[in-house]
Design goal:
This protein is mainly alpha-helical and 349 residues long. Helix content is 56%, strand content 6%. The strands form 3 sheets. A 3-stranded antiparallel beta sheet has the order 2-1-7, with no helix packed on it. A 3-stranded mixed beta sheet has the order 3-6-8. A two-stranded antiparallel sheet has the order 4-5. A hairpin with a 3-residue loop joins strand 4 and strand 5.
């Protein structure tokens, strides 16, 4: 098989129906994925190539800065990481198709067909796009695979994705075209909330203005880092931070990565949100993905108890114009209240 045969097969099963879904899944497992790995090995000039372990794929494939987007695609490990993600996500769909074919659900039949077919054919189609970039960056061959994509999300696509999350893709209240990138924003929110809720660190209450001054997540990450030897994360903390930072370009600028990354990152982070280790004294717990001694929890919160210094220019301006009263004694900023009982973590003592 060559790239023309590969594209031809995708076009043959382009229409979503039950038979095409079954044929597409079988072809993906028996022909498409093996060919992608064989083709990738050929690009590298090797006999074979292997999938990476999940942590390796995350570390070698996720770009968090403009420098990453410039330098990482020049390394073979970048494409091995993404092909590993594609392979894993495609096999997840293939298994789901097998379950659907064995036990069809009459109430969700057509919806399942469209979702499974659309997801799988999108993944396989983006494999050609990945190879186009690999050919250009590693072999200086432009147009060898003939696959291109937009790397910028349009604001309307984000709106359409939000409609699908709220109403459902096939509700009649949303566009039914797939919106595979919008969940990146939800995943980022989930990561931030997971870390904040474990330590009860959200923001300061300003008694002067009756408002909230948020605490940047970067400050919480800085406070956690020196305490890492005392904290158990179900997923390596540095990988959690990498995924969080990878999501920022989408959230702030609509930057798209490859279509398989959101699902792969979600699966990778799952133990952080639903750890299956027994919780001391009460069995399994949703909070078990983050565990620490109570004193460590208290120590991290104490590091935020000090009132942050306000901007020097603001302080000078207030002194000159005399608009604000000089504050004496207790600070007007108070750390948000949190107690150990309500924190989304498990204490080890």
């Amino acid at each position: 098989m060559n790239e023309d045969d590969y594209k031809g097969a995708l076009n043959r099963w382009r229409n979503a129906n039950r038979q095409n879904l079954a044929d597409l899944a079988q072809w993906a497992e028996q022909d498409a994925l093996p060919w992608l790995w064989k083709e990738f090995a050929g690009i590298l000039g090797q006999k074979n190539a292997r999938p990476l372990q999940p942590a390796e794929a995350i570390r070698m494939g996720l770009q968090t800065t403009p420098a990453d987007r410039e330098k990482m695609p020049l390394k073979p490990s970048f494409y091995q990481a993404h092909l590993s993600m594609l392979d894993s996500e495609a096999k997840k769909y293939i298994k789901a198709v097998a379950r659907f074919m064995a036990e069809p659900n009459p109430f969700a039949g057509n919806v399942a067909i469209y979702n499974l077919h659309g997801g799988l054919i999108s993944l396989l189609g983006h494999g050609i796009i990945l190879f186009e970039q690999a050919g250009q960056c590693l072999l200086n061959l432009t147009g060898a695979y003939g696959g291109w994509r937009r790397t910028q999300e349009h604001p309307f696509e984000i709106l359409a994705g939000a409609e699908q999350i709220i109403y459902g893709r096939f509700s009649g209240l949303a566009h039914d075209d797939r919106a595979p990138f919008t969940p990146v924003a939800v995943l980022r929110t989930a990561v931030e909330n997971r870390l904040r809720s474990a330590f009860g660190i959200y923001g300061y209450y300003d008694t002067r203005t009756n408002g909230i001054r948020p605490i940047d997540l970067g400050q919480l990450i800085e406070a956690i880092t020196p305490n890492l030897p005392k904290i158990q994360f179900a997923v390596d903390f540095h990988d959690v931070v990498k995924i969080y930072r990878w999501s920022n370009p989408y959230l702030h600028a609509g930057w798209r990565d490859f279509v398989w990354v959101p699902g792969y990152a979600l699966e990778f982070l799952h133990p952080l949100f639903a750890d299956n280790r027994p919780t001391p004294g009460r069995g399994w717990s949703l909070d078990g993905g983050i565990r620490m001694p109570r004193e460590t929890w208290r120590e991290i919160r104490r590091s935020f108890a000090e009132t942050p210094r306000e901007n020097l220019f603001v302080e000078l301006w207030r002194a000159v114009v005399g608009v604000f009263k000089r504050r004496r004694g207790r600070s007007a900023l108070q750390l948000n209240g949190a107690d150990e009982q309500s924190s989304a973590c498990v204490f080890l003592d």
